[in-house]
Each structure stands twice: as C-alpha cells, then as structure tokens.
Q: What sequence folds into this?
C-alpha cells in the first residue's frame, strides 16, 4: 500500500513539476525522508533525481546527488524530529529548495516565493504523513 | 531454515547510494553509460511532450482570464486556438518536408541553410528541445525561430538537447545594431540581455534593433535578437551598455529550428 502511495506521489510530482516552476520532486524527497526509513529515502531520491535529470537533460546522477544529500541531512536529524518540528522542516525545506534553484537554474538570485510555497507543501505533506502513520 | 534480513545503518545505505550515483554520473559524462540514456529518455519523453502542451494551454487560458475585455478576448482566443491548430498541423507537415520550410515561414533566410525542426520540452535555465544525438544535433549549433535568434546548443543527449538562450549569463556572442554598432551580447540575472562593450562615441538609441554579427563564424549574421530598451552609460567609462528587450518570449516557444548547416 505504502509503496503504491509513494510511487503515485512521485509520478504526480513529476507531472506537476513540469506544469509549475516548483521543484516538487525535491519536496517529495524531503517529505518522504522525514517520516520513512533510509531505504525509502534513498530510493525516492534515486527515482526523483533520475526523473529530474532525464526530464531536463542534465547528466544522469547530478540531481540524484543533491537529493541524496537533502535526504541524508533529514535522516541525521530524524531522531530528534517530531510532529512539532514543523518549523525546522519549513526552514530546512526553504533553504534546500532555494539552494536547489540557485544551483540548477543558476540565475544568481534567490527564489523566496517558490521556496516558501515548496516549504509549505513539505510541512503539509509531512503533517499528513505523520498523522497517517500514527493512526496505523 | 529462516533467513534474517540484515539491518544496515543509514550511513552505510547512503554511502552505498552515493557511490552508485557517482559511478552513474561519471559513466554518463564520459559516455560509457550513454546506451542507458536512450531507453530511459524514450520512457520519459512522450509524457513530457504531452505535459508541456497542457502547460502552454493553461498559460494561455490564465493570460486570457487576467486580461480586460474578457468576452472579446475569449472570442479572440477561440480564433487564435483554431489558427494555432492549423499552424501546428502545418508544422508537422513541414517537419517531413524540410525543403519547403523557408518559403512556408516566409523568412528571408538563405535557401542553402539546413534545419532540424525541434519541439520545445521546457525551459529550465536552458531551453530543452526534443532533438539530440540521434538527430545529428551537435553542440554549438545555432537555434532559431523564423529569422530570430533563439540560442546556441550547449549540451546534446541521445534524444534531447539543452539550448543556451540570450538571457543566460554564460552565453556571450558578438552582436550589432541595425546601425552596425558592434558589441558583446550577454545575459544578466537570468532574465535580462545586455549589449556590452559599446564604445562611448557610438550612438545607440532606444528601439535600435540588435542582430547577430556572425563574427564568431558559428552563428550566422543578421538574426534578430531584440531591440534596445535602455542605454546605460557612465561619463568616465570606456564602454557603455544597453539593455536589450528580447524579441521572443522564450517561455512561450513551442517549436524552434536547429541550424545544421549554413
């Protein structure tokens, strides 16, 4: 069931990322890594990163490295993360999305609105995922 | 006998993934894993073309909604949509009949030029087009739309290519105005085009047309880039700059032409 939800979320994020200017695949990676195990984090980073690289014509693995780092940092702080840590999640997502857009869009300026919207989506997704997990 | 799954620490899992990722990256950059790219791109390719088409449709609808005189605009949009449909089918025919391209588009370009028609897949710092190695696209090729300069091919994958557009600060090309005043064209902040290194004594005015000069040899001359929007000049500087308003909205491009020979 979870595998299906994760796969569906990634496909949906890939479609919506093409429609919007938000890095939704990164959002999915951060949200999934915050509540799932390292294997799910790595796997989602791999699938999302490869989809992003293939979609944008970047060398295979370039985005995957960034996603893996983003997922790994979340994993390091995971034991300390609770449902109340949404502020940390928001700030972390905001920084990572900004960094991602600066590195991969390379236009030399910050993206506060895109980053804030993305971070907001992360905390909503994380909140929903926490609640689903705790209710099971 | 029951096997127990070994639980690896997160650090080991991430380190392993990171190594695989580096191997993948090196393999792709060096071209060893190019054989992997073609089938993978083929799988991602059709949905991406489809999604990009939907995006353009949504963008157009949003524009219509947020413009005054909605009713008139809707009628206009309906007519435009029909015109677009006709044009799209025309372009499909043109892809197969490349010889008739120039006359159909009514562009004053030399007949000897050869084009590779390409569909735009997205704009993510670079313009991504649906033609790559298999279509004999090579880095450095000029991309144009009618007689307007779109950019230069930066990297080529199996089935896609990345195109540097004039707003990109990495792209530097020799350009001139319609009064034959030369300068160096470069992008700034990802959304601006600057014509730099214009001698102070030269007279550049607003609305002057900026064209490619063709001095590099890679880019043909006299392709339209934009028009001068503002002249930036300091009293003590050797050179002055001009802000160029691009003639094309790069985010709205759906089809472009890669110049394979000229």
A:
């Amino acid at each position: 069931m979870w595998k299906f939800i994760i796969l569906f979320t990634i496909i949906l994020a890939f479609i919506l990322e093409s429609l919007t200017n938000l890095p939704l695949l990164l959002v999915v990676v951060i949200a999934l890594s915050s509540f799932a195990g390292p294997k799910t984090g790595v796997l989602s980073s791999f699938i999302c990163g490869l989809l992003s690289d293939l979609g944008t014509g970047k060398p295979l693995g370039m985005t995957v490295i960034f996603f893996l780092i983003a997922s790994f940092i979340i994993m390091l702080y995971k034991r300390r993360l609770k449902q109340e840590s949404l502020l940390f999640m928001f700030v972390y997502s905001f920084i990572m999305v900004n960094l991602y857009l600066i590195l991969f869009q390379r236009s030399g300026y910050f993206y506060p609105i895109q980053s804030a919207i993305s971070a907001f989506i992360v905390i909503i997704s994380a909140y929903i995922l926490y609640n689903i997990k705790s209710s099971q | 006998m029951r096997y127990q799954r070994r639980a690896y620490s997160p650090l080991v899992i991430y380190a392993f993934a990171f190594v695989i990722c580096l191997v993948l990256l090196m393999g792709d950059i060096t071209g060893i894993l190019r054989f992997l790219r073609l089938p993978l791109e083929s799988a991602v390719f059709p949905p991406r073309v489809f999604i990009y088409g939907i995006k353009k449709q949504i963008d157009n609808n949003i524009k219509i909604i947020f413009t005054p005189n909605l009713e008139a605009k809707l009628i206009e949009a309906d007519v435009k949509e029909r015109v677009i449909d006709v044009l799209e089918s025309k372009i499909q025919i043109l892809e197969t009949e490349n010889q008739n391209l120039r006359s159909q588009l009514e562009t004053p370009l030399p007949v000897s030029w050869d084009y590779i028609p390409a569909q735009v897949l997205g704009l993510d710092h670079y313009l991504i087009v649906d033609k790559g190695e298999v279509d004999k696209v090579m880095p450095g090729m000029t991309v144009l739309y009618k007689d307007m300069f779109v950019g230069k091919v930066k990297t080529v994958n199996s089935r896609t290519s990345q195109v540097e557009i004039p707003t990109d600060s990495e792209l530097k090309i020799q350009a001139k105005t319609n009064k034959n005043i030369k300068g160096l064209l470069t992008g700034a902040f990802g959304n601006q085009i600057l014509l730099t290194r214009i001698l102070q004594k030269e007279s550049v005015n607003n609305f002057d047309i900026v064209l490619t000069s063709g001095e590099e040899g890679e880019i043909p001359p006299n392709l339209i880039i934009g028009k001068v929007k503002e002249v930036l000049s300091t009293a003590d500087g050797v050179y002055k700059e001009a802000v160029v308003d691009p003639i094309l909205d790069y985010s709205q491009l759906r089809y472009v032409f890669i110049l394979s020979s000229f």
In short: Chain A touches chain B through 33 residues (CB under 8 Å). DSSP finds six helices and no strands in chain A. Chain A has a mean pLDDT of 82. The first helix of chain A runs from residue 2 to 19.
